[in-house]
Amino acid sequence: MDKEIFEVVLSKSSQDPKIKRIIEMRTEPALPKGENYTSTILKITLKVVLGNGRVATKSFIAKKENTGEAAEQFSNDLSLFTAEVSVYTNILREMEYLMEEFGDTEGPLWCEFIHYSRADSIIILEDLKASGFNTVKRTETQDLNHARLVLRSLGRYHAMAKVLEERGLISKDGYKPYLFLNNEIYIRNFIYGRMQALVKGMREGGGEEWAEYADKLCQISFEKLLKRIKECGKFDDDTFECLNHGDCWNNNMMFKNNWEGRPIEMRFVDFQMPHYSSPCIDVTYFLYTSIKPNVRHQNLQSLIQLYHESLTSSLDRFGYKGSKPTLEDINNGMERLVFFGTWFFTSTFACVLTERTDAMDLDLIFKTNGEEGYNLSVYCEDGVIEMIGEDLKALVKLFDES
């Protein structure tokens, strides 16, 4: 997208009507390699002339659809960009109206959408970093303060989605089932395939202590795993369900801190994988992918309770008339997903912790049905097995009991 087209885009958007002309435009990667697999994230920096004649610098974020075999598979299966544009232009806009209607002054949970070019497969968004927001470094994972803010915010998001559904503005039939609980290809490639890589890594670098667990995990067939994973996603007909964010993990969140370094605001980013189901899926995915394992082990029940309080109080705030889930309902949903969360955590966390930028080769993963494409060295890095050890033992126990 050249600067003349960008000039037209900005003149038509409500982002900054004071911008009159673009003098210079510079594009650079916004994220290091290995931080995002489905899109290329670019930062666009503009030198502009304002209406009063002054020169200023403005920045925006551009998401460009990746190319390659894996990118095409994701696009065909999930329509990532179409889904995200729909969320920004329909769902999030209606959530903003809802906040205005009920005087919610806590602020939005998303960045501003600027433009979508179907021809260029580019989405233009507000640059949250320019407003003081930053991500938590993936390899460090989130602490308790961040986890509490995320779950409180997630409760607000789910509540607003449920109210919009009640008003007929969200249809549960408009979304595909959650791929990691229902899609055989993705379960094989990204859940079963990662575990096979972990088993190989344990045998190479885990020592005798973990050989027994590697042997037990190796004996689990894909068919048995597939059945167990799909069972996790089968909720009762009376389960409280709503629109989920769908990819609720650390790299898809940005935070603003106060002067003491404590997070006080957050924004969700990347709305490419929305799905309709129990909100416990978003909660489980976040808790098992994004926070320090010891934080989850020590605070799991209090975090679930915090989420439930935020969800139900937000439903009340936004005038929801339907029945609200009890804490027991949410706990039951979380318990149903324990196996999924534990398997996902143990097989994936090494890729989260590594500093390497070549942990996964998505094209090779799809080409080999998950048998190749995972860098085994990430599973042999110091401290990885020990960090996932408690959950690894719990996972084997869950299978032994089944």
UniProtKB/TrEMBL annotation:
Pfam families: EcKL
Name of the protein: CHK kinase-like domain-containing protein
Residue ranges of domain CHK kinase-like in the record: 123-317
SMART domains found in the cross-reference section: CHK
Signal peptide feature range: none
Coiled coil segments of this chain: none
Tree of life domain: Eukaryota
